[in-house]
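Table S2 (text version). Query chain:
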Amino acid sequence: MKKIWFDDALDLASLTANGGQCMPGYLGIEFIEYGDDWIKARMPVTDRTKQPYGRLHGGASVVLAETIGSVGAAMTVDRSKFATVGMEINANHIRPVKEGDVFAVARAESIGRTTQIWSIRITDEAGKLVCISRITMAVISTDRA
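Corresponding structure-token output:
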């Protein structure tokens, strides 16, 4: 697969720090790895990410999916000219998680001039599928953003 990133390399620490003072930081989302056409993040399953019954909250999974899909999309464009913004996201929750970490891997399904579609697979520490999500991103000129 051809490298999809606009920059030569992704600075995972900066991507993590960029969300530090908002939702991703509050939930503990950390960017940990990437390849030519994918990016990976980790999120701890803690009281901040659980629902009242002690399981990973579906909304936290969606935040993780939207975070990694949005960041992935942003890293494919010239950010001095374009911004990527979410248009639609969906998620299918497969199995519960009560503790540990979950991992999300986002891959672009389509990188177009005006829209992008990303698939995100969230797994538990054993590699079992927890959630499948898809996000559609709009690519807009920064004079509109």
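Notes on Table S2: The chain has one domain: 12-141. Helices lie at 12-18, 23-27, 58-74.
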